[in-house]
Design a protein that fits this description.
About 45% of the residues lie in helices and about 10% in strands. The protein has about 325 residues and is of the alpha/beta class.
Length: about 325
């Protein structure tokens, strides 16, 4: 692994954030399997180094847009367990008062403009946020997360063209986890993904999405350049999702093998790799890491219990934040 930071606290925070994402997803999966959570959800497990490596390079005021597989982005950008689990369970203390659910969480206080269930749907939002920052003379940066399957969406090319022409402060982060739903990426994407950005004169990079330090080092450099007006940029992050496309996608052998999944989990896991590096560098002991893991597990369990017992929003709120001419719409 390459080293991007020298501050021990930064390293430990990055490790903790990755574990928080994995722990959140494990609990969310159990809530679904036990029929306590309505609707579907899409697990981020295995891709933690992408969200953490990128978001650690951002300020609170910097913006991100997320995807249908967005819990990791939300947590990495500063979301709390309690409000996240409340949102998944449709409770009023959730970030969107229980109306967003798993795929539509937004957390404006941390610059998270929202997850999106439409593949590539947030690309216009991210580019618009960057355009807004430039018009207002702010040095905020926007990161647009999307999967490899979204590269087939026409919106991507429209917004990259505008971003390149107007030199907007946006970074397009393509999380290439090898599969577009149930189809291998190389079966749906001709040529290379980075070439799509280069066609618009956008500088594009590919990085190991399982190496949190490599992701963070590259992102910090690009964020700094973006603030100076050198953007936009494009990053393809090579990663892997451990679960199926969604929680109901359990029998995956018809499109990928158990051996492939085992290889990534045993040899390429971002948390295991970073933990080994922390111990080898003398930054943390195994005992300290185990204690950190236990604290996060306890925090998550308490948040789940709280969310299960929290109140649902009142039925009178059904049109709140929907119609502007309703008196309590902006309450």
């Amino acid at each position: 692994m390459s080293a991007a930071k020298t501050n021990t606290e930064d390293y430990l925070r990055m490790y903790a954030q990755m574990v928080r994402i994995r722990t959140f997803e494990d609990n969310a999966n159990q809530l679904y399997l036990s029929a306590k959570m309505p609707g579907l959800t899409h697990m981020y497990s295995g891709e933690e180094a992408v969200a953490v490596g990128i978001c650690e390079a951002l300020r609170v005021t910097d913006k991100i847009t997320s995807t249908h597989r967005g819990h990791g982005h939300c947590v990495a950008k500063g979301a709390d367990f309690k409000e996240m689990f409340c949102e998944l369970l449709g409770k009023e203390e959730g970030y969107c008062r229980g109306k967003g659910g798993s795929m539509h969480i937004a957390d404006q206080s941390n610059g998270n403009l929202g997850a999106n269930a439409i593949v590539g749907g947030s690309m216009g939002i991210a580019t618009g946020a960057a355009f807004s920052a430039k018009l207002l003379g702010k040095d905020d940066v926007t990161v647009c997360f999307f999967g490899d399957g979204a590269t087939a969406q026409g919106l991507m090319y429209e917004v990259m063209n505008m971003a390149a022409l107007w030199k907007l402060p946006v970074i397009y982060a393509c999380e290439n986890n090898g599969y577009s739903e149930y189809t291998r990426t190389d079966e749906i994407a001709a040529g290379t993904i980075t070439a799509r950005a280069e066609a618009f004169g956008i500088e594009a990079h590919q990085v190991d999405g399982q190496d949190v330090l490599a992701v963070n080092e590259l992102t910090e450099k690009l964020v700094e350049r973006t603030r100076k007006g050198e953007g936009p940029f494009f990053i393809e992050l090579m990663t892997y999702r451990y679960h199926g496309h969604h929680v109901g996608d359990i029998n995956r052998e018809y499109y990928r093998s158990k051996e492939e999944e085992k290889h990534w989990k045993d040899n390429r896991d971002p948390i295991t790799r970073f933990r080994s590096w922390l111990v080898a560098e003398g930054i943390a002991s195994e005992a300290e890491i185990e204690a950190m893991n236990a604290d996060i597990k306890s925090e998550a369990a308490a948040a789940v219990e709280y969310a299960l017992n929290a109140d649902y929003p009142d039925a009178a709120e059904v049109d709140m934040h929907v119609f502007t001419d309703v008196k309590h719409a902006l309450a």
